[in-house]
Design brief:
The chain has 18 helices and 21 strands. It is α/β, with parallel strands linked by helices and about 450 residues long.
């Protein structure tokens, strides 16, 4: 896949409307309330036992509040709050282990949050060893065991311990290296700290290192973000996630501490993104899609080149053949044709588990129509094309006729040469790669009732 990304700010502004990020289809706003845990038990009962597992553990605690954050988190300095939560987590792990029976082969593990390294080194070790007691973890080179890292929340031995426990991929939350920006969002971490953590991770042999950046934060300018990019490129992470900051203080209380007057203008923000894309491409980062970049030799880029990239609640992934099992508050599972979300508060989560129930809050059992549209959306986001004959053979339909209304909705993008449609396939052009999310919206049968109030803008 070439790197001839075409940056046209006028075109991007024209298409820059709210829409989902499609980590699932239907998206999480379409999940239905669950009055009990029966949908989740049905999902486990119908699971294909030949499918390997991807485990996600949500650790909600943060010692500091980052003002831009919209995650489900508990901000506290009281480290002792973690211990009762870990006991609940272990109870859920045992409950789901029982439903999985003897088919518990794990190929992917991810600790997210919150701040997973809020846990002490001993707690991290005990949690991983508990998982290892109850699941069979693959030792294949392709196995993917990752954790999100806050550089401020590392003890002297934490990265060494995590590597010894089997973690081979880590993600650092950097966001921006300018002090004024860090102060404005309450995430102060000097460049020297980022360098030290990065160097240590390299020395310990982590296979892939990701850094998160955010554009659109207070006091950012084109010049200031360019300085951050210079340093990041020098540090040479394997992957980069460059996210758009969506200022929604009416939805996310911490964002009310950000002064809207300090945010870059829409014009400046767009210029920052354009410069970022051009600069990373020049530094030999491959644009995977949806804010993600990777070195050409990284597994993510190689999976896309070979047509084996997938997308789920963890974003782009190389393990799309796994059933995703979530543990902890707000975590989401994807088991076959079921999506299942846990309770989002610790009290409700504890109440369910104490009553010997799974902590199911919402679910969705997808229809045939959902499956067809899910495949189209995933293929466009991962590989920029989808073939009609593949859909016809897999679902027993005439896909051109079946998707006629959606193909008609793509006409403006077709006229702007962002999409090509012929007898063989739907394809995103080089000109349209940055707007692939917009093309996916044409296939979303639920979008019109939600798009304005529920989603951030595409760019």
């Amino acid at each position: 896949m070439s790197e001839n990304l075409q940056w046209d700010p006028l075109l991007i502004q024209r298409y820059n409307r709210p829409g989902p990020r499609y980590t699932s289809y239907p998206t999480a706003v379409e999940f239905l309330p669950a009055s009990n845990d029966r949908p989740e038990r049905d999902a486990f009962a119908k699971r294909d036992p030949s499918r390997p597992l991807s485990l996600y553990l949500h650790i909600p605690f943060c010692a500091h509040v980052c003002y831009y954050c919209g995650c489900n988190k508990i901000v506290t300095k009281r480290r002792e709050q973690a211990e009762p939560y870990l006991e609940l987590l272990k109870r859920e792990i045992l409950a789901k282990k029982a439903l999985l029976g003897d088919h518990r082969r794990v190929e992917q593990l991810h600790f997210g949050g919150g701040t997973p390294t809020f846990l002490s080194d001993q707690q991290l070790q005990e949690l991983v060893e508990f998982l290892q007691q109850h699941f069979e973890f693959s030792d294949a080179d392709s196995a993917d065991y990752s954790i999100e890292i806050d550089p401020r929340e590392l003890r002297p031995n934490t990265l060494t311990l995590l590597r010894e426990l089997g973690f081979n991929r880590i993600s650092f939350g950097v966001q921006d290296l300018e002090e004024a920006v860090q102060i404005a969002v309450n995430r102060v971490q000097p460049e020297s700290m980022i360098r030290a953590v990065m160097n240590e991770a390299r020395e310990l042999g982590y296979r892939s290192i990701n850094m998160d950046l955010i554009y659109g934060l207070p006091h950012q300018t084109l010049e200031s973000f360019d300085r951050t990019l210079d340093t990041i490129i020098e540090l040479n992470p394997d992957r980069l996630s460059v996210f758009n900051y969506a200022h929604l203080p009416e939805r996310f209380k911490p964002q009310r501490r950000i002064n809207a007057e300090d945010l870059p203008s829409a014009h400046e923000k767009l210029a920052i993104l354009g410069h970022c894309i051009e600069k990373l491409a020049a530094a030999d980062y491959h644009y995977v899609g949806m804010d993600h970049f990777a070195r050409p030799d990284d597994e993510l880029a190689k999976a896309q080149a070979s047509g084996k990239l997938h997308r789920n609640f963890q974003g782009y992934t190389t393990h799309g053949d796994c059933d995703l099992i979530g543990f902890g508050v707000s975590s989401i599972s994807q088991i076959g044709d079921y999506y299942l979300q846990n309770q989002v508060t610790v009290d409700a989560y504890e109440h369910c588990l104490s009553d010997d129930r799974l902590a199911t809050l919402k679910y969705r059992h997808i229809s045939l129509d959902d499956k067809i549209r899910r495949e189209v959306i995933a293929e466009l986001l991962c590989h920029l094309s989808v073939r009609f004959d593949t859909l016809d053979n897999r679902y027993g339909i005439n896909s051109r006729e079946y998707l006629q209304a959606s193909l008609q909705a793509l006409q403006p993008m077709l006229a702007d040469e962002l999409v090509l449609i012929d007898d063989v396939q739907i394809r995103i052009t080089e000109k349209g790669r940055l707007l692939a999310r917009n093309a996916c919206m044409a296939f979303d049968s639920y979008l019109k009732q939600h798009e304005q109030q529920r989603f951030s803008k595409a760019i």
